[in-house]
Amino acid sequence: MHWLSKKRYLVGMTLPSLLVYTVYIILPIGIAVYYSLTKYSGIGKPTFVGFLNYARMLEDKVFWTSLKNTMIMFVLAFALLLTLSFLLALLLNSRLKFADLSKSLIFSPAIIAPIIVGIIWVYILDPNIGVINNLLDAIGASALKQKWIGGEVLSPYSIAVIYFWQQLGYLTTIFIAGLKMIPEDVLEAATIDGTTFPQKVRFVILPMMKTTISTVAVLIITGVFKIFEIVQQTTGGGPNHLSETLVTYSYAQTFDSGNYGYGMSLATFTSLLSLLITAIYSLLTRNKED
Questions:
Q1: Which pTM value belongs to this model?
Q2: Do 224 and 73 meet the contact criterion of CB atoms below 8 Å apart?
Q3: For 71-82, how does the pLDDT look when each residue is reduced to its tens digit (9 = 90+)?
Q4: Are 221 and 160 in contact (CB under 8 A)?
């Protein structure tokens, strides 16, 4: 197998993957950035307008609403998923009865298509036909009924909860895999030294799982900025664009309104914001490690 160390073979094996990555990732990003600098309706030739589309965002109330909604979802999903998926992994990693069955049940939402997830939660949260409001009616607590989706306030919070429900099992599985990689003798030595369980988690488990935690954090950050099907199925961005996210608003501008240039500027901004938050997180965690 010494031939694998030769440069020409390494290049030959890397080239196909690099070609696919360039065609399907790099090239579309470049095209999107180009169209974000133009006025284009999908018909005819695009007209170069520079950064006018980005300047338009500053005056667009729907853009600021979609940005606010996206950040609400991000903060809630990041806090809930990173914390609870880790705690749940600690619980399921211990020797409990029915642990394997519990893992399967918790992971099951992750294999459901997002559009189906949206349909399921419409029947739970819809103000008129949803299970929650009908249950509140049945127990005589009609005063507690809310517009969980499709209202002016609670939609982004509800969508964050739906995304949390869908992703919890997947991220918990990643944390369980990380826990399995910690040597048993290290944990046994900590137990022999008389550490309590919280001390073991803080001083042994967490430091040895920094890579896993960073991986999960990046998955959450990038995942939140790709929430699309759930919003489309539950609220459609309404009423009056009040539950739009950056992704759904970009889609609406591009394909519903035919404003390809403005839609691509929204998509480019969303990608840059996701990269910026990821970079900030990486910088902060690196500083703590140093």
A1: 0.88
A2: yes
A3: 999 999 999 999
A4: no
